Structures are given as structure tokens and as C-alpha cells.
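Methods: example folding runs. The two proteins below were folded one after another, and each record is reproduced exactly as written to the output file, sequence line first and C-alpha cell line second.
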Amino acid sequence: MALRPGTKLGNYLINAPLGAGGMGEVYRATDLSLQREVAVKILLTSFSQDADRLHRFLQEAQATAALNHPNILSVYQIDQADGVPYMVSELLEGQSLRDLLQSGPLPVRKAIDYGAQAARGLAAAHSKGIVHRDLKPENLFITKDGRIKILDFGLAKLLQPEKLVSNEEATLTRQTGAGVVLGTASYMSPEQARGEDVDHRSDIFSLGAVLHEMLSGQKAFRGKSGAETMAAILKEDPAAFEASRKIPPALERILLHCLEKERDQRFQSAQDLVFDLESIANTPAVQPTRTEELKARGRSIWWWALAGGVIAGIAGGIAIGIHFAKSSAPKWHRLTFSKGMIQAARFAPDGRSVVYSASWRGNPFEIFTTRPESPESRSLGLQGSGLLGVSSKGELAVLSHMNTIGVGVSLGTLARVPMDGGSPREISKGTQFADWDAEGTELAIVRDIGGKNVLEFPMGTPIATSAGYIALPRISSDGSRVALFEYFDRAGDGGAVEVVDRSGRKKILSSGWSDLTGLAWSRDGKEVWFTGTRISAATGLYGVTLEGKEREILKAPTELTILDVSKDGRVLLIAQMWHGEIHGRGPNDKEERELSWFDFSLPDGLSNDGKLLLMHEAGEGGGPNGISYLRGMDGSLPTKLAEGYCGGLSPNEEWVVCGLAVQPAPLQLVPTKAGMPRSLPDDHLLHSSAVWTADGNHILFTGVEQGHGQRIYIQAIDGSPAKAISPEGATRIATSRDGKYVATVMSLDRVVIYQLAGGEPKEVSEAKEGEIVIGWTEDNRSVYVNRPGDSPSPIYLIEVATGKRTLWKTIVPGEPSGVNFITPVFITPDGKSYVYGMGRRLSDLYVVEGLK
């Protein structure tokens, strides 16, 4: 059934054909409700009368819709119109891997990248019990931004229906009898070719065959007919690579491991394959040769010349590639072996010993010393303290009474203590960071004053301020300037690497980072070395000169954080894995359940009845801008709402408030069901948390105007201008159930309640330092407070009129190792349902030699 442009199919307007496959035709179409372009796949007329093929088409749609991953095609809807079954999915721009392979084999590093992305998508499917069973270059699509998307789960089989949580998922099950062969001959696993039942390891074999073809340009198993090809799969080794193709031995071993005839001898999970591929991705053996690099860069220069680009920047990229290709592999020496997280580390004055602070197995932070020749660590007896710096004279700067106020940001009391023992001497409250100068006499510190971060160097002399966060100041060896990170909002997202001199002149060296984790000066002082990522993926190590020339130094298949560089060039690095988890209890739950989705899930709101969770993915799975979802508290599958972070689920559960990835920009009202997003007037503010008033006619949000601190604004959804209702310094906000009051924290230490109709604010003096209001009770008489970051995290009720303070609940992680923070917390008005976020960071400390 060919559809003409202008045909309406359900709620979709057909625009143009895109192509046809073995089972259906695909069209570019417009979603008339949301006014977005989509792809619509319909089943061929000749097939729609065939019960088995109709079942397989619906199975493909159902299987794909049950998955939600950046490397899998997103399915929006499955329906029928006038007897025509169709599936609506995201519209992809790019080309299939088959089309790309028409030009020959891919560069090794590109093949590894595509193979790892495909393996990540398969791992997500396999975790839901779904096997693809027809993986081939035609079913791998490469978007314009280089992302792999797996298509056509038409032969997918749900392996474990007993794990399903809804009737809709149960419809994915399909029994395929032994002896029935489904798949494409050249990419079948041996068990598929024999007509046996298959499991997830069959996909690993198929991906190995695809990866082989990406590297060689030829199929791994070849025959003149399908029968001969299947015979080769069963009996023969994969085709050898041509002598001119230099495949790293480690990569060839991975390929052969994928293509083992016996499934028990292959990789046993796609995630294991991802790890192995990423482990070799940045070794010198797979870096581009000079010839490959120059050819690739030559094509880039031609393209940019046509577009009017800057050739000099590309030439700089060539030099980086050549430098890295020639460098030898660094040597890693592990220093720590316990389970937990490391907060900071520095080389001691002797150049061999290392001082670090860590929380092992859920215990409070403590400061230790260790040496590379010994696996043992010795405690310095400073429990509950974090390390800030080590002076050349052997004196420590430590942070006591620590309170986590953001990812990687703690607030406490700065103290000095001799490394060889003694009592800490407290010198500054409300401190976040500190660093010693080379002489060990002066400190640079960061404090929060009046809702702004202030950098002082030396102490008492402000040289820089920020409405966001100033983090990890490091003084240059000559004492003339301070390198630092600046996060431009209090969410800790979106930052730059900067230097500030003693007179306060600030220079941005490198910007556009979605995450920044560690910073130090290079051995010669000519570069700032730092770890971060621009695309919410694993952080890498980079260097930037004082002129702003940036280069990549090291990448690894894990999160990296640089902590220090010794005088002889050795580097202290943390290798760690971050996970964001969501836990909570719905209205019908007797116990808490985990509601995480990808690698870093965080909650953003809870419906008043406790049945719906607003959440977002902030890690690699969420992509460069993050993705917001709506999910049932019963654990049902999430529904994607928008890219970026959304907050504030409306009282009628029909809207959420979302901020665009690039700020300042207007706030967006995004529907939770059918409908069009709406933009509010551009107020030119940097937006943070947002909530709704009880009547659903206004939103309250925290925002930053250029040159000012963060304040609370009220905004009518009819489009009236936003109006500030608080002084500068406001942070997290919570509105009363009657819509008359909003509670906030001013300057990180005072809980204050403002009347929306105007009037004198009321300070809740019974709230302790560092606590925030996380909600109101149904009768509007009491507020819930807790200290964000604490683990365990006690939650208290404070009666506003009397100040009576009672413990409501203490949140205790079931597995405490590596829990970095517990926040935010959302509670329903009746107090029966709640949800909270939890960050878990498991890290190991290394000394790395050979980095240049």
C-alpha cells in the first residue's frame, strides 16, 4: 500500500517516502499534535493479511517501544488506521551502516566506536530480556552526530516474560519453534543456522560479524548461496584480514571471542564487550597513523574551506593526533583497594607519600596516607574531615563538619593541622575549597557570601565572585594566578576552566563543559590539566595553555578525576564509576523500590497522589543535554517528555516546566500527554528549580540575572512577565498546599518563608544550618526539612507556628558503599509516598606515569 504525500494516517500527515524493507514501507510524516517530524512505518498490504507477518510487525513495534536507550530507535506509537497497522518513531537523519560500507572498510578507531555504541544498545535490550536476532549493517543507522541507532527489532524474542511488570510488555512474547530459522544468513549465529533456540549471545556473534565487516570491508563468512554461507558459519573460521589492514592484536582477539562457535565460549554479556572495546579505544595501537590522520584532516579542511571555517584550528587537531599517536602508553599504579569513594588526594612534600580523604564501606570521610610500594593506608585520625590541600611545609588544609551541597561541592569549616599529628585549628567557617601556595604560607579559599561564591587570595582578599559555584582553586607555582572551575548555575552543570590573577583579572581558558571533575597545574606550569566531558560521557584528561590552546591527554572507559601533579610529572588520578539511583515508595508499596532507568537517574518531582514520578537522566545515557521522563511509581516504563531537565509537575499532572540546555533561554511548558510545548516570555535569566502554585496558574522558580545572585521569581503561565519576590541568595523552593507561601533557603543557612501576596517574611529559626525545606504537610502547618547530601539522611517536621521539631523518617541506603549524596527528596502532602535520589561513586586512586 503506497501512501501519497498529503495522506492522513491517524494523527500523522504523510510527507514523502523514505524507503522500504522486507516487511514494510517507511515515510517521513508530521505529527499533527506535537508539530514534529516523525517516521511512520506501515506493513505492506500483502503482509497485513498474513497473521504471522502481522504478528511479527506488531512484535517489532512492541519490542522496540519497550526499550528506551540512546542507541536504540525511539518508538512513539503503535496503532492501526483503516486496517493498516503502523508504527511511529523518531525521524533519523544520516545513513545506514550498509551505505557507509559501500565506500570500503572503516578506520579502526571508528569501527571500535560504532561497535561499542551498538553493544551498549544491545546491553540495554538484553537487560529487558529482548534479543534482536537480525543484527546486520542494514539495521544499524548512523545519525549525523555520529550516534549508532539499532533498528528493526522485528525478530526480537522476549526471553523472560516472568519479569514483566505490565500486560503490555507481556504481548512481546513470541514462541519460535526449534527448527525455524529467522535472521540474515551472513550474520547468523551458529545456533540460529541450526534452527535452535537463541539467547543474547547470538546477538554478540552477529555484532562480531558486523564489526569484522566494518574493519575488513568484506563479510566474515562468505558463500555463493545462503546455504553455503550458513555452512561456513558452522564449520569455518572467519575470513582473514588482508595484509594491508593493520588490525591491533587486542582487537582481533575481541573479534574472535565474539565469533566463537560455542556460545558458552563467547562474551557472556554485551556490557563485557563494551568494556573491552572501550579499554583498547585509546591505546596507541588504535590511534590513527600519520597517513590516516592527514587524509582524514584533509577532508575536513576541504569541507571547512567551503563553509568558511577556520583551518588553523583543524591543523592544531592534526598536531594533537600525531602527538598522541607517538606517545607511549602510560603506566598505572593502583594505591587503594577498599570499596567506597575518594574525595581528594595530594602528593606529600617528600614526593612519594600520598595523602587522601575517602569514605570506605559507608563510613564517614577520613584522611589517610599511603605510599606506592605498599597496599596499606594509615589513618591520620581525622574522621569526618575532607582533604583540601597539603602545603610544602607538611601542613594540611582540611574541611571539617562537611555538608554536601552539590555534586562535588561541600560546605564546612576550614582547619589547619600538621601532617605528622596534632589538633586541627579552625580558621574559617562556611568554606568550600582551599589550596596552599608553593611556599606553604598563603591559602586561596572559596566561601559562600550573600548567595554568591567568593574566591579569596590570600584569605580575606576577594579576587573573584560567581552566582554559581567556584570550584577547586589551584595556585600557580609562582603564586601569580589561581586556576579554577566556574559552574555558571547552582545545579553544578555547564562550566569553564578559568584563571584569575591577584588583581582580579579573570580569563576563560576553555568553556562548554557539561561536567568538570578535577584540576591541577602541569609540571612546567605552562598548562592547566583538568578532567571533564562536554557530552555527558566518561570524563577524559585534557590540557589547556594560558592562551586557550586545548588538547586531549588521556581517555579511558571510566570516569577520570585528576587530583595532583608531582614535581617529576607523576599524576594522581581517580578512576571511578558514577551511578545516580532513584528509590521511593508509592501509595500501594509496603517497601521501597528502585526506580532508576539509565546510568544516572535523578528525581525532579512527585505527583500529589504519589503515583507519578518526574525524573531525568543526567549521565551518558541521557546524552549531551539530558532527557526528562515521566514514570509510574509502580515501576512501569518511563515516558520520554523532552531533552533537557524538567521540574515542577503541575497539580493536574498535565504540564511540566522545562529549561533549555543553553541558558539564558525562555522556560518551556511541556505537556505530559498530547499537545504542543509552550514558551514563556524570555526573561533573560539563568533558571534553576521550578514548582507550581496550588491553583496551577503560576510557577515559581529560582533564577539568576546577570550581575546578581539567585532569587525567587513568580511567573503566570498566561505569559505575564516574571517578577522577583525574594532578595538575592535563594536556593531550593517549596510551596505550601494552599498556595499562599513559598519556603526557601537564603545564603545556604537560613530557612525563610515568603508570602506570595506580599508581607514580611518569616524565618524558621528551628531549622539547622545546611537544612532545606523539601515540602509542606497537607494542612499547611508544618514543613519537611533535611540536610541535602547527608547519608543516612534524617527528615524532620517543623511546625511553622510553634517551631516544634520532630523526626519524620531517616533515609538509610541499603548498600552504603560509595553513596555520595542523598538528594533531592519529594514527599506527598499526606506523607504516605516519597522518592529520593542517591549518588553512588566507587573509586580507586592511581599514580600514573608517562603522561605528557
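Second run, written to the same file directly after the first:
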Amino acid sequence: MSDERAKSRAAFDALLDTMREAADRFAGAEWGLTTPEDTAGGLRVLANLLEGGLVGHFDDDPARPVFREIVTSTRKSLGDNADAIYYDTAVSSRHAYRVTGRTAGAIYVSFTVEAGGGDGGFPERTAGVLNDKDFDVDADGRFELFLGGRARERNWLELPADTTRITTRHYWEQARSPAVPPTPDLALGIEVLGEASPLPPPDDATIAAGLGRVATYVRSRSLDLPKPGDNDPPAFVSQEPNVFPPPVPPGDHALAAADASYAMAPFMLGPDEALVITARWPECRCANVSLWNRHMQTFDYVHRPVSLNRAQTELEPDGSFRAVLAHADPGVANWLDTEGRSFGLVFWRFMLPTGPIETPQADVVPFASLRS
């Protein structure tokens, strides 16, 4: 029997068309990628997005939610992080949910409501956050909380009408990255409250819908993004290389932690240069600094020192520290390996800050001066 009318076949072809278009445009000159290395980087992020879409959105139903890991040490996108593990799942204000899990040693845990941009689309805003200050954790690190439904005094997060997903954040401050396998067992579970009948088996329509969500996921995080220079960045983003803006909360910026403060700037270094950053960790729950490429993918934190948290930082007697971005090991403390890249992004996170945050200061110096 011919499948020429199958919705799933049409959706599969549309996904292939999306990948081809993104490869030609997003990984090409239209987005400022002209060298073979730049093109390869663009194709890599598209491959990671395809994997992320298939893992997180192909089988995705708010009536039967499942927490799935958003990024890993090999699947990088959306500003991933060596000190954190992230999960998400589809939810809806039409349902109420019970969530269980354990902290597994994490020093910060939160659940964030993403609103708008359903069916694989990029969320439009952050619509609520519940962190571990606002839900009960027992002596073994286990917790239970509720999403949507009737209001509760604690352990509850409202789901507005345009809710589409829940993002979870779990942060550690330790020498070894928790995102490198074997990763901590968070025992995350989510169930719909009330009667839950089995879903019908997959059919042509549901497979087509899943493939459509994957295509939308890839497109919304590539071709639908503003081209370089086409939009005004958030207040926490600097467009001047090697100069950081004051750290500020992200507001309702989608996929951001509303209870954090951020600062980001591009770095630009010559082959014989290094960037010396002077900073001070503020009073906060946890904090780190990470190196990203232009696509907001972390550098190789499995094998290289490309991020610092407070437990990994060697401080000066006055409590400040110097982090050094360099293409090779300068033989000083707090080296951040640029992987030999002349350009990248430096991103600071400060979770639940309770006081002022000093703006990091950076200076470009000759690499040789560090060793002398």
C-alpha cells in the first residue's frame, strides 16, 4: 500500500527540509559563518539540536509527562553548564501534577515555568519559579511538590494558562563536574493527578505531530533566531569584547533562572595574548563562570578547565581572585582554557544572590607576561 498520503511521511520530509535549510542558511554566510571551521561549528549545533528535539519533544505529551535531560556533556545547546544538570517536560494548565525527586547533593534546585512556544517552539517568557527555599526537603534530600491545580501554602507552583513546559535546574559546587557520567541520580518523577487512562498507541497522526515538534524545535533555535546584530541584547549581555556589564537579574527572559543574576561578554584574543579577569564571588547560593562558543555551547569541560565554580577557585588573601583565559596553560591559578579559540563568550551565573555583585574587570595582557 502506498504511503503517499501518510501525514507522518510528509512530516518526516518537512523535518529533512528544515535540516537542509538550516544547514544552508544558519550554518552559512547568512549568519556570518564563512570559514570551514565556522560552518562545521554551525552544523555541529544543528546536530545537537536535532538530538535534543528527538530526545525531548518527539514523544512529548502534557497528559503523560516525562522528565528528560535537556543537555549533556556531548549534547550541548542553550547555554549549558558544567556545574548543573537540567531536565524539562511538557505540562499544561489543564492538568495538575505531583513531582518527586531528591537533591543528591545539589546546593540549588529550582523548577521554572516556561510559557508560550508550545509544540517544540522556543518559550516566550519565564512565568514562575519555585526554588528549594520554597519547598520542603527532608533529611535524605527528598522532596515532593505540586504544579497547577488548587493553590497550596508551600511546595506548589502555579501554572498560568499559557504554560507549556517545566524546566528543572540542579547545581553543584565541587571539583568534578556533575554533568560528566556517572551523573547523580535525582530520582525525578512527575505524574498527573487524578484519573489517568492509557494513551492510545502511536499512529500516523501522533508520529507526524512528534516529527513536527522536532522540526519546530530545531527551527526555533536556529533559523527563527535573530541574525547577528539584528536585535538588542538583554541588559546582562555586553557587545564589547573583554568588557563585562554589571550582573543583573534576567527578568522574564525565556529559559532563564528568574532568581539569578547574569553577566556575559565576548572575549577576543590574539595568539600571544591572555585575558586576566579580576572578580569576587558574591554572597549567593552558588556561582560559576563558563566559556561558550558563539552558539552558547560550553567548551569541552570533560577534558579541559573551561569553567570555574567557587569550590574550584583559588582566592587571593582579600577574597578576590584572578581568572586567566589563555590558549595554553600559563602556569598560574584559575586558568580557563580557550581551546585555542580567538573568539568566544564568557558567562557568569550567580544563583540567589543576597548582596551586591561586583562587576568583573578584564584586561588583555601578553601571554609571556604571565609566566614572567
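Comment on the second run: The radius of gyration is 22 Å.
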